[in-house]
């Protein structure tokens, strides 16, 4: 690690699998799941208060650029599916923490659209990052703690949201 880190806040479906996938690129230091982008302090799946499930990624920009991280995100989730198809809490959204991140998000989305990677146009929203309301411990690193669950077994508690 170089000592310098950067924060990315990304949403693209259920946060549990997003967190599991986002920990893989070299340069990712840590991840945590939570809610962001809405109003209110106690979002739930039933009452998200405008929030989206998101993953905060702390990364080393000398080992993994923000652009590379965004390109990876666009490979692991369907950025062409709108809220009417996936629901507002699973929408595709990038929360930028600097003007440079905003510009990079805009350029990456334009490049993804130009590539024809997805059957439809990217609907990913770009918003200024606000606070991340961290999910309870039982939702953090879910697939690491319960590796049998993705294989079809019953989880140790009902998954009421990510």
TrEMBL record:
Pfam families cross-referenced by the UniProt entry: PMSR
A GO term for molecular function: peptide-methionine (S)-S-oxide reductase activity
Record EC number: 1.8.4.11
Keyword Oxidoreductase: yes
Highest rank taxon of the organism: Bacteria
Catalytic activity: L-methionyl-[protein] + [thioredoxin]-disulfide + H2O = L-methionyl-(S)-S-oxide-[protein] + [thioredoxin]-dithiol; [thioredoxin]-disulfide + L-methionine + H2O = L-methionine (S)-S-oxide + [thioredoxin]-dithiol
UniProt keyword annotations, A-Z: Oxidoreductase
Domain Peptide methionine sulphoxide reductase MsrA, residue spans: 8-146
Family classification: Belongs to the MsrA Met sulfoxide reductase family.
Name listed for the protein in its UniProt record: peptide-methionine (S)-S-oxide reductase
